UniProtKB/TrEMBL annotation:
Keywords tagged on the record: Membrane, Transmembrane, Transmembrane helix
Annotated membrane topology: Multi-pass membrane protein
Spans traversing the lipid bilayer: 6-25, 37-58, 78-96, 122-144, 164-182, 194-214, 244-263, 284-311, 331-361, 382-400, 412-430, 437-457, 469-491, 512-534, 546-566
Subcellular compartments: Membrane
Name of the protein this chain belongs to: Solute:sodium symporter family transporter
Gene3D superfamilies: Sodium/glucose cotransporter (1.20.1730.10)
PANTHER family: SODIUM_GLUCOSE COTRANSPORTER 4, SOLUTE CARRIER FAMILY 5
Entry similarity comment: Belongs to the sodium:solute symporter (SSF) (TC 2.A.21) family.
Keyword hit for Transmembrane helix: yes
Phylogenetic classification of the source organism: Bacteria, Bacillati, Bacillota, Bacilli, Bacillales
Domain of life: Bacteria
Pfam entry (one): SSF
Taxonomic source organism: Fictibacillus norfolkensis
Amino acid sequence: MFSGIGFTLLSCTFFMGLVAWISYLKTKGETEDSTGYFLAGRGLNGTFIAGSLLLTNLSAEHLIGLNGQGYRTNMSNMAWEVTAGFAIVIMALYLLPKYLGGAFTTLPEFLSTRFDEGVRRYTVMLFMLGYILVTIPSTLYSGALTILKLFDVPGLLGISYTQSVWLLIWVIGIIGAVYAIFGGLKAVAVSDTINGIGLLIIGLLVPALGFFALGDGNMFEGMKTIATNSPEKLNAIGSSTDSVPFGTIFTGMIFANLFYWGTNQYVIQRTLGAQNLKEGQKGVLYSGFYKLAIPLFMMIPGIIAFHLYGGGLNPVDLAYPTLVADVLPKYLSGFFLAVLLGAVFSTFNSLLNSAATMFALDIYKPQFNPKATDEQLIRMSKWFGTVIALVSFFISPLLMNAPDGLWDLIRRFTGFFNIPIITIVLVGIFSKRIPALAAKVVVIFHVITYYLLVWGLDQMFGIQTTINFIHIYAILFFVEVGIMIAIGKWKPLQKPYVYKANAQVDMVPWKYALPVTFILLSLLASMYIVFSPIGLAYQDSIVSGYFWPAIAGLAIVTGILIYLSLKVWNRKYADFLSEQHKKEVKEARKLA
C-alpha cells in the first residue's frame, strides 16, 4: 500500500516540480514592476490566455460536482459550461476592446472612472466577500475531498475524516498560494497552460477507460450501452423538475455567464494582460471551444459510473472518484494527482492573485497611498494575498456542513454578487448620465432581495419561492436595470460620462474573430442537438430520424454565416472598432 502511495507521490512531485520550474524560467525577472506582476507585462498571447482561462475556470468541484450531477440525473447541468459560449462571444467582440482600449487593470478601476470611488469600493467588497466566503473555500474543499476519497487519507495516516479534510486544505492551500503570491499573473498563466494540457489528457482518458470497462474491453460497446440503456441520462434538455430547466438558458444563465466571462476579475485579468487585441480575442474565443468539451470529461464519466455501479452511490459526488480509482492504471495515479492539484491550484491562485490585485490597486493605492511605488504595491498585494489565504484555510472545512452539496451551494451563493456587478457594468457602458447613486442602490437592493427570494422568505415567514434561482437572476437583473434608469431620470449627471481611451496595446481585431464566433456558436447548438430527445437521448434507437437533417441544416446556415463574415462583416467590424476608438481618443484629448 505504502509503496503504491510512495510511487504516486513521487511521480506527482516530479510533474508538479517540472511545471514549477518551467513557470520560473518563463517569468524570471518579469515581475519586478506592477505591470509585470499584475498583468504579466501585457505580454500574454492567445494560447497562454486560453490555457489559463480553462484552468482558472475548471477545478475539482467541476470534476466532482458535474459528474455527480450526471450520475444523479442527466446532462442538463452541462448548460453551466456549454452556454458560456454566448458570453464568451460578447466578451471577445465587444467588452474586451472596451477594457483594453481603456488600459484598465481591474474591473473596479473601470467602474471608478464611470461612476465614482464609492462604487469602486462597493464592487471590491462584493468580489472579496464572494471570493473569501464561497469561491476560494469551495475550491480548496473540493480538492481536499477528491484526494481524500481517492487515496483513503484517513486510513493511510490514521486520522479522522475531519482531520484529513483540514490537513489537505492547508497543504493544498499553502502550495497553491506560493504560485500566486510570489509569481504574479504570468507564473499563474504559464503553469495553467501546462496543467491545462494535462487536464485535457486525463479528462479524455478517464471516460475512454470507462467505456472500455463498461464494454468489457470494447470501447464502442461501452459507448453503445450508454446510448441505448437509460438514454434519458444523455438528455440535456432539462425539465422543470431538473436543477437546470432548459428555459433558464435563455434567462438568468445568460447574465450569470456574462458576469463570469465578462466582468469577473479573476477571469478577465488574463485577458487584460494580452499583448494586443488580436491575441486577447484569440484566447477568449479558444476558451469557448474548450468549454464545449467539458461534458465529455465532466459529465459522461458520471453516466458511465451509473451504468457500472447502479444508482446506489451515496453521496453522488463519489461517482467520479470511484470510477477513477477503478479504471485508471496505477502508474498514472501520480500524473492524475498532479493534474488534479494543478486544477485546484489554478483556480485558487487565480483568485488570490485577483483579490491581491484589487486590494493593491483599488483599495490601498487610491485610499491610503496614492503615490505608492511599484515595489510598495507588489509588497502590499503579497501581504494581503497571504491574509486571504489564511482566512480561507479556516473557512473551507466548514463546507463539510453544506446541506445541499457543493455544486448547488456555489451556484446559489454566487447570486449575491454576479447579477449586481453585471448590471452596473452594462448600464455603465451603455449610459451617459446615470449617476453613482444608482449603482450603490442596486448593490444594497440586490443583496437584501436575493436573500429573501432564495432563502429568507422561507426561513422567516415559511413562504417558499417556487421560482428557480436561475430565473431569479434574470428577474432581478431587469428590475435593477429599471431602478438604475429611474434614478438616472430623477438625478442625472450634470455632465455626461465620457469614456477615456488610453490603449497601451495594438487595437486591431483578429481577422478571424467573426468566422470563429459562428463556428463556436454552431458547435454550441450542435451539442444540444446531440444530447437531446432527437439525438442520443432518443428512446427507440441511437438517434432519431430528425437528427441528421438538423445537423445538416445547422452546417448549411453556419457555412453561409462564415462566408458572409469573411466577405463583408469582418471589414465592417474592424472599421467599427477603429472609428469608435478614434472617436474615443479625440474625446479623451479634449478632456485633457
